[in-house]
Amino acid sequence: PTEIAMDVTKPLGQWLNTSISGIAPANTDSVRCYVIFEQPTNKGGAAFIDDVVFRTLPAAGVTPTLDGLALAAPQPNPSRGAALLRFTLPTEDEVSLRVFDVAGRGVATLLEGRRPAGQGSIRWDGRRADGTRAAAGIYQVVLRTSNGVVSRRMVLAN
To answer: What is the DSSP string of 70-123?
Structure first.
């Protein structure tokens, strides 16, 4: 769950309360993200969490491997159809690359399984898992490995 509140009685940008909370993977020792405001007004607006990176504690005697995990910005973005998603894995790992809508519902699974270390890419054709065209809107592309999670925002246009 995420909650962001602004005091509408004060000029835009002055905070009454700022609170972002959620559930992180087990053994998480830090989280980095950006909060993006869409069309903010003195009466509200929409806020999105983008480029979330969870850093996890390694098992005893294991060197952390999250450094080097990356998901590049989708190209093009916004996209009117297919978009190229490029990623880098620091080590061979189990990988899940999924697309979610702003409500957090899964739209498409693009990759699922073991992948070698290094760079990889996949093209999302803008279709849902059932083969229908996804609606225009804002989507989160999430790359999950055993060592962490990175995400990018993507806009799908008509």
So the answer is: EEPPPBSSSBSS-EEEEEEESS-EEEEEEEEETTS-EEEEEEEEEE-SEEEEEE
